[in-house]
Structure formats: structure tokens, C-alpha cells
Amino acid sequence: MTFCDLSELQCGQTYNVSMFSQDESCSSLEGNKAYVRTAPCPPQNVVVGAQCGAGSMVVSWSPNPDAQYFHVAAVSNTGARLYCNSTGNSCTLNNLPCGQSYNITVLSIRDGCQSKPSAVVESSSAPCIPRNIKGSLDCISNSAWVTWDDSMGATSYFVLARAANGHNSSCTTTSSPCKVQDLNCGTLYTFKLKAINKHCSSIDNATFELETGPCTLTSISAMSQCNSDTILVEWKVTAGTPVYVVTAEGDDNSVVTCNSTSTSCVLQNVHCGMHYSVIVATSSDKCSSLRSPPKKIQTAPCVPANVTVVPSCKDAGAKVRWADSLVPTSYQLIATTRDGHVATCNTSVNNCSLVDLHCGQLYNLSITARGENCTSYPSSSSFKTVPCAPSDIAVDIDCQTNSAAMSWNKSTGAVEYFSFAQSTNGVALFCNSSNPSCTFKGLECGGVYNFSVTASNSICNSSFSSPLQAGAVPCPPSRVNVRMQRIDRLYWAMISWSKVTCPDVDYLAEISGQIENNPQALMTVSSYWLPRPYFEFPVPCSTAFNITVRAKNSAGIGKPLSPITALTAPCAPQSVMYTGNRQSAVLFWNASVFATSYTVYNVSRGTRVKLCNTTELSCQLTDFDPNATIVTASNAVGESNPSQNITGPVTTRRRRDLEFVQFYASLEEDLEIPEVLTLTVTGVSLHVSWTTVTGATEYTLMIEEEQIKGKASKPARVRRVEGDSYTETDLKPQTTYCVRVAAKNAINQSSYSQSKCRNTDALVGS
């Protein structure tokens, strides 16, 4: 094309325009230059100055050398338009009608090209002169009420009353009427009324004259007791006046009167917190010549009313506000709680802010108003402060469901709680509740979380509680297996367990028990923290022990698995002796802890030949060779190492060393074997009771699954009981369990009772 539009050019500039011809490969030489001058820029810093007396306004702006002249436009609120042009930096708009508001803009013009309009400036002409002005006297208070019709363009009005002696009084208002107070008696006043707006006042003042009534009675006195609803008025008697009329007018234009034939009168039912003007007249005509000058008096402040309290959440405070009153010069606010905290505030206005209040408290609030001579009765109200931050946070993490149950102490005044758990990598979980507990779901196993909670009373939230850190630790293994194995002459517990579904888990196994069931020979052994799911422990003979396994990861150490009980094979019988001779002998020994039977072997030919198997502590033998005889003890786990040190023949069977003092005599005696009295089953629980044995301090209870041919025997459950009954829970359903009981004291243990067996029930629904 042979033309082109250039946009976004700057105002007040001269541009050099060059043109080139181009094809796909080349560009021509530069053609003839053209010059383009853009429109002038709009005037800046436009200012309007009102000239109220002349009825005009002067518009000025910053110099702009690029313009030939300037055009000013003023558009009024009625749509009227006024214009003026100037080659300088100002222009005057004359003959402005009163009561108009204007939007004023200025254009820069050069060679018929005009700029964009300047920013709009608002102004107005002088208000119109008020019309229909009237005045009336209020002889009770020696005041004048002035009324008028509203004036166009006025935002406020000013009334001035001036006497020839120079005394004056005034009032200001935004609308008619206006009360000019404190005028003198019997004085002619000239009243002037001005209409005013932001820029001007009305050009001519509206005026009128008014004369106040005479005051021939002498001055009066008026008194009011604090917090009383009466005013006592006194005066001097005037000759020939039978009746006096006392009138009081309040700020709210209420009037109270009383009549008297003496020199005093009591005005009843006056209002608190009020300024009254009181006069005494000789008739009901309050503007008659026989009246007193007005007497000003104020009553006691009213009890502060319409008290409102708005909590200030950030500074643990409250903003208190009450109805305003004309009489009080100051207010005192006192807020108290049951815990003894007191907050006070003294102010001259009708509001006050309290800070640093105690959280979660009910404050009793009283406000008293103070006047010049009196103090009001206190107001009575109450308010509640921001709830306290929840305390005593507890978190219980369920590793099975990857959830956390969070609880805390209830906060007084709280209606809702907002809790959150934030992990160390920034992931946050939220939970809201109306109760002091909440459950978080979706925790990541191995994650460490900071738990915190805030309380809300639906208006303010408390500060957050101190964070409690807890980790989503792994669960313990769900299954643990124990296999006892004897290697050489030592017993080993081969423990293995199922792996936990959680990343980067290590395991710790621990066993604890009493060696040979002796409470003074305690054993506790633990493995290392290892990622593998098994460990081996050497365990002494005749030892019942508990096995626990726990897991840990970066979040911490998990809870241990419920203990599993296991048992080792018994130790070799001790103190083996015999009576008799080689042809016929009785072999006897001390009981081995947890042994259920004993076997005597002959080993003269390099192999073991069984001579006797018994559950007792002795055996009758023939063809007896003490040098080729061994004794072992057995239980469901296995057989002990042999006891080969046989002494004898002895003349009498010794139970134990006779060197024990008499104090131990009763303990040395063989304990009787307890008898199982009852064995009952309830579901998968087994209840057993037995006879008590003299000299026994506790009982060893052995609970064994009945062995099934072709299957490995299960470890027995061994329990130490101090009473004469016991209930075992969490047994397998539909399984036969056999129970044996032995009596025990610090030195001795009896043989086990005869075994009694029962079947557990099937699970419900199975």
C-alpha cells in the first residue's frame, strides 16, 4: 500500500519520517524525508481558585510552550457549560450562578490540533442565599430558634446573633433549624445566616432582628443531689405575687414544671445526664416581664448504657464501647475475673481498649461515668476472652492404618478446634473438630510430623499450642517364629519374624527371663539393630523367657510386639545319689526346673541303654553300675545334658545339705504336688485352679499344645502365679491344651501334677 498509520506517538513531538521500498531480497535507498508534528500535550497541574465575592473562578495550569492557546471547559451539575480561552497560564470564568458544582478540564491547542483533556478538577460556585428565614424565642433558656429553607450548594450553615453592646452567640448546623443559646435578657439581637460549602460561603448574609424578653425577678439558685431525680429551685419573694411557676427545659427539649407560693419548689422526674435551663415566672407566660434569668444546671451522669464488647484477637484484648452522653467528663472501666486479674481503663470518650487479658476467662465489666460533681452507678455486663491455647497434647500413631489420633485438654470457651500435622518435608495434614480430639489419616510411614492445635470461639482463634513431634514409626512384625536348637552342650533360640511394610526398616529382638526360674537370676539379651528378619541367641537351660521384636526407621522406634513365651530344655539333674548296692539300688536326684520327665541310661557299651523313665525324682534299679550310669531331664523342648556325677551308696536319703539353719527347715522339705481342681474353657481362654501347697510361695504353670504326630512340638507357655488360679487368653481355636502345675519356693520345687487337657472353642462365624 502507499500509506501507513503510525500509532502510540508521543504528544508535543516532531518526527522525521523516512520511507524505503523493499522486495524479498533488497531494500531501496532512503526516500525524501517528511516531518510530522504531533498534537500538544494536555495541560498539567490544573488548579481552580474560587473568587466567591465576584461570582467567578480562576483556572490555572503549568506553562506549555508547545501550545498556541488553551481552552477551558466547565460543566455544571445541571448540564450547563461555561468556556474561556487564554494564551497564558490562567483563565477566569465569570458570572457563575450560585449553588452549582463544576467539572473543569483544559485543552492545549496548536494549528487547529487539540490535546487530550487534562485531568478533571472539581469545584463549585458560592451557595445561594438562604430564603424564608424565621426566628422564635425560647424564654426558658433565653435562646432563639432560627429556621430557613435549604440553600442550593450549601453543605453547612452558620448563624450569628450580635447585640449592640457587643455580646454575641452563634450556632453551626448542616440543616435547619439551629438553636442560638445563652442570650441576654431584654436585648435586641441582629441575626445573620450564612450558607457554606467547601469553596465559598453565600455572597450576601440573610439577616433579621429579634429582641429577648425582660428579666425583672432576682436571680435564682438550683441544686440537684447526685443520682437523684429532683432539682430544688429557690428564689426571693416578690411582693404581690401569689403563685410562682418553675420550668426546666432539657437538652432533649423535655420540660418539667412545678408551682409554689413560697420561695422554693422541687422539680420531679428530671432525667439523668442532662443539662437543664431553669426559670421562675409569675405566670404561665414564660416570656413575661416577671421572670428570672435562666439558671443552668446539670444532673448526675446516667449509668453507661448499650455496652458492646468486640474481642481484639491479635493482642488478646477487647474493644469496649457504650452510648455517648453530654454530661460525663470521664469514664472509668474495670474488668475482673475469678482468678483475680483486674484490667482498668480511664477515658474521656465513650470507648476504651483493653489488652493483655487472660485467655479463656469470663470478665465481669463495670463502667462508671464521672461528671463535674457526681459519679453514676456502675453498669454491669460480662464478656469472654479468646480461648487459651490447648495444652497436654498427646498423639497416638496407629501404624496399621497410618493414622494419628491427637487429643488435648479442653479449652474453656472454645466451640471448635483447628489442628494440623506438618511433616519435615513440608506436607501438611489438617483436621477440624468440635471435640478435644481429632484423627489424621494418610500419614507416610517413616515421616516425622509436628502436631499443633488452636482453639476457636467462632470469633477469635487462640495461639497455636506448642508443637509436639511424633514419627510414623513402623509396626512390629505380625508373626514371630521360635525354634530351639542344641549345638554341642549349648541351647540356642533361633528367632525369625515377618518383614514390615515400610521403607528402610531395622529390627531389634530382645529376650528376657529368669534363669532356672530364679527371680534373683534375671536375664536380658538383645540383638543389634539389623535389617535382616532373624537372630540367634544362646539361652541357658531350664529357662522360660519372653521374646519381643520391634522395628525402627527414620521416624523412630516402633512399639514392641506383644511378648511371646518360649522355654529351653531342662538342665541336667543335680545331686544324683543312690542307696543299696550294685545288685539292687534306688537312684534319686533333685528336680530340674521345667523338667516333665527323667530318664536313666546305662552307657557301658558306648551306646545309651534306657534303664528307667519316670516323672518322679527316683528310680529302682538292678545290676546297677554307678560309673556307667547317666541321668537326663526332659520336657517338650528337648533333653538335658547328662548328669554323670553319681555319689553313694548313702545311708539315708538327704534332701539337701543339713547345714542349713532351722529357719530354712520348712523350705527344705519336699513340696507336695498340687492337684488341678478345675480346667474350663471359654472361647479361646482357659481357666485353671489348683490346691494350695504348704510352704509354696508361688506356682509354675505349664500350658502345652497337644503334640500331633508328624508335626514339630510347639513351645510351652510357662507362667509364674502367686495365687491358686489363672486364666490364659489368646489361645488358638479348636486346639487341645494340656496343663500341669508345680509348687515352688525360694529353695525347692515340686514335681508337676498330672496333665489335664481341654479343647478350645471355635471362633464365632468360623
On the 0-100 scale, what is the average pLDDT? 86
Beta fraction of the residues? over 45%
Radius of gyration: 56 Å
Poorly predicted ranges: 654-668
Helix content: under 10%
CATH topology of the largest domain: Immunoglobulin-like
Number of strands: 60
CATH architecture annotation name of the largest domain:
Sandwich
What structural class is derived from the secondary structure elements? mainly beta
Query: What profile does the largest beta sheet have?
Result: 5 strands, antiparallel
Counting structural domains, the number is 8
Q: What is the general shape?
A: elongated
Distance between the termini: 94 Å
Highest-level CATH class of the largest domain: Mainly Beta
What does this structure look like?
The structure is a single chain. This protein is mostly beta strands and about 775 residues long. It has 1 helix and 60 strands. Strands 5, 6, 8, 9 and 10 form a 5-stranded antiparallel β-sheet that branches. Strands 41, 42, 44, 45 and 46 form a 5-stranded antiparallel β-sheet that branches. A 4-stranded antiparallel β-sheet has the order 14-13-16-17, with no helix packed on it. Strand 47 and strand 48 form a beta hairpin. The two termini are about 95 Å apart. Mean pLDDT is about 85; it is low at about 655-670.
State the gist of this model.
The chain has 766 residues and is mostly beta strands. It has 1 helix and 60 strands.
Which helices and strands appear, and what pairs or packs with what?
Layout: E1 14-17, E2 34-37, E3 47-51, E4 56-60, E5 69-76, E6 81-86, E7 90-93, E8 101-110, E9 113-114, E10 121-124, E11 131-138, E12 143-149, E13 156-163, E14 168-173, E15 178-180, E16 188-196, E17 206-211, E18 221-223, E19 231-234, E20 244-250, E21 255-260, E22 264-267, E23 275-281, E24 295-298, E25 308-312, E26 317-321, E27 330-336, E28 342-347, E29 351-354, E30 362-370, E31 381-384, E32 394-398, E33 403-407, E34 416-423, E35 428-433, E36 437-440, E37 448-456, E38 468-471, E39 480-487, E40 490-497, E41 506-515, E42 522-526, E43 534-539, E44 543-553, E45 556-557, E46 564-567, E47 576-580, E48 584-588, E49 597-602, E50 609-614, E51 618-622, E52 629-634, E53 646-647, H1 665-668, E54 676-682, E55 685-690, E56 698-705, E57 717-721, E58 725-728, E59 736-744, E60 756-759
Parallel strand pairs: 47-53
Antiparallel strand pairs: 1-2, 3-4, 4-7, 5-6, 5-8, 8-9, 8-10, 11-12, 12-15, 13-14, 13-16, 16-17, 18-19, 19-22, 20-21, 20-23, 23-24, 25-26, 26-29, 27-28, 27-30, 30-31, 32-33, 33-36, 34-35, 34-37, 37-38, 39-40, 40-43, 41-42, 41-44, 44-45, 44-46, 47-48, 48-51, 49-50, 49-52, 54-55, 55-58, 56-57, ...
